[in-house]
Amino acid sequence: MKRLLPFLFLLCPFLLHAEPAASVLTNGDFESGSEGWPLNEGASIQSEDSGNHFLRLEFSEPSRLLSVYRSFPIDSSHQAFVFSFRARYDNIVHGKEQWHDGRIILDFKDAGGKRLASPSPPYFKKTSKGWIEKTLEFTVPAGAVRLEIMPALFNVKAGTFDLDDLTLTPADPAPIIARREAHIAERAADTARRAAAVKPTIPAPPADKMPPALRVVGNQIQTDTGTTVWLQGLAIPSLEWVSNGENILKSTEIALTEWKANCIRLPVRDNFWTGKGPYQKDGGAGYRQLIEDVANLCATHGAYLVLDLHRFRAPEEAHVAFWKDAATRFKNHPAVLFELFNEPHDLSWDVWKKGGFVTDEKSNATIVAENGEKLRGFQSVGMQRLLDTIRETGAQNIVIVGGLDWGYDLSGILNGHALDDRGGRGIVYSTHVYPWKSAWQGKFLALADKYPLFIGELGGEEKPMAFLRPDQHEDPYTWSPDMLGLIQKYKFHWTGWSFHHKASPRILLSLETYEPTPYWGQFVKDALAGKQFELKKLR
User: For the chain, what is the largest distance between any 2 Cα atoms, rounded to a whole number of angstroms?
Assistant: First the structure.
């Protein structure tokens, strides 16, 4: 009989068989001490006043995987299992990533040791009210010969995780499959209900109240009537790290009304757009609608929205799918511009444009790594493919394209790597300029006579960023007025990073007061209000 893909399902006690088979997991109650459970540092067998014994995993140091491992051969007659246990946990604080928590990892392996489709691990955060009981059921994937069970504190910041009475019992797969199918059907129906219930909170203004559509003419952005437009505004992050954002609509309203921005750069993520992010249960409908609400809010105020796919390194096939859908949704929306890809880096100009294999090695040892992502090798589709995907939907919206060195270096554009717009309203090239970036003339100023330039990110912090050497830091009180003076001299389009209190360099001290930081935010607010700054020195 063909085995089915494993499926995890939380059961109520009354769903279990009245007379279950015997557990194949020995010493799951730990009454024989650590027998069968090799203990690492941080793991121990403890006892309670009642004499009951249990396994304890206890936090010892940050960013450390603390685990206990067991492996079980799977009898060919076993096609499904019921796994039950008791858990108790105290003050589990997740680590850098959301999945850095307390969990029980369940991995099926084939004869060659390859991981097969496996149940989602039950996970635990914060504090339980004493012992809690959990029961899971899942089918066995084809080719599985072994099941590995690994209780773990996965790179947490704090916490204690206790386990007891673990059982792994062979089960009839038929009722498990039936319950799984019913559960999937109910989730699909619930997703459909949620999607149908998502309605715009901010309607689009009438067509005659929309801001005029924009096009590229030479090195300027103009309306169809020939009026030159200067985009100045703010980047409002958080939709790239949480699917419901953090005060997105309120921040947009304040940016447009109180800070006098006429352009909002909105970083977004493709996985949230498709509803595959943590805790999303509506297929991404709410996320997409929130972005549309921001676009409508901008349009209502006669302003523009830059939709920024906020990814790093180089575009992949998933980003093609994102732009096919996003460009269709905002096709020829007069207030929306498309920014293809946030910050390309560590690849060649040929691969940047045409696609190809991106290696797992740094392309230039002198370039500062601006986040801690681990370089990996993969196939990139290239920027031209993203642009072509947008144009194939019929969307003519202006497209914004960033260069290399984390979006800073545009030198390759004048050396044969400019993109072909193929029928749209034009391309604007984007650069991200921070105090540790130098050689302005060669990296982006050289393009100013031929193309419109959009400085999509800029800003400074009082203290050196964590990834910089002290000698790479420049005082924002000298850098900020010079940078804004440059922008005003050439009328470069720009959005200051970031209109938030978390994402550095910070424009705001908090999202409650919207008070500007004195070292950067106040300069931005003054510039948007019309204050003139003098460029004293090029970098």
Answer: 84
For 58, 68, 91, 132, 370, the CA distances from 156, given in Å and listed in that order, are 10, 15, 10, 21, 24
DSSP 292-323: HHHHHHHHHTT-EEEEEE--EE---HHHHHHH
Q: Does the domain formed by 9-189 have CATH 2.60.120.260?
A: yes
Q: Please state the length of the chain.
A: 539
**pLDDT tens-digit readout, 472-507:** 899 999 999 999 999 999 999 999 999 999 999 999
Find where tokens 């459909």 sit. 192
Q: What CATH number does the domain located at 205-528 have?
A: 3.20.20.80
CATH 3.20.20.80: which residues of the chain? 205-528
Q: Which residues have CB under 8 Å from 113's CB, separation 6+?
A: none
What DSSP designation does 181 have? H
Place of tokens 């003076």: 485
Residue 399 CB burial class (10 angstroms; 0-12, 13-18, ≥19): buried
Closest of 418, 374, 423 to residue 397, by C-alpha: 423
8 Å CB contact between 71 and 147: yes
Task: List, as one string, the DSSP characters of 44-84.
Answer: EEEE-TTS-EEEEEE--STT-EEE--EEEE--TT--EEEEE
Overall pTM > 0.85 = no
Q: What six digits make up the tokens of 121?
A: 């691990």
- Who's near 385: CB < 8 A, 6+ residues apart? 315, 320, 355
- Residue showing tokens 């007659």: 77
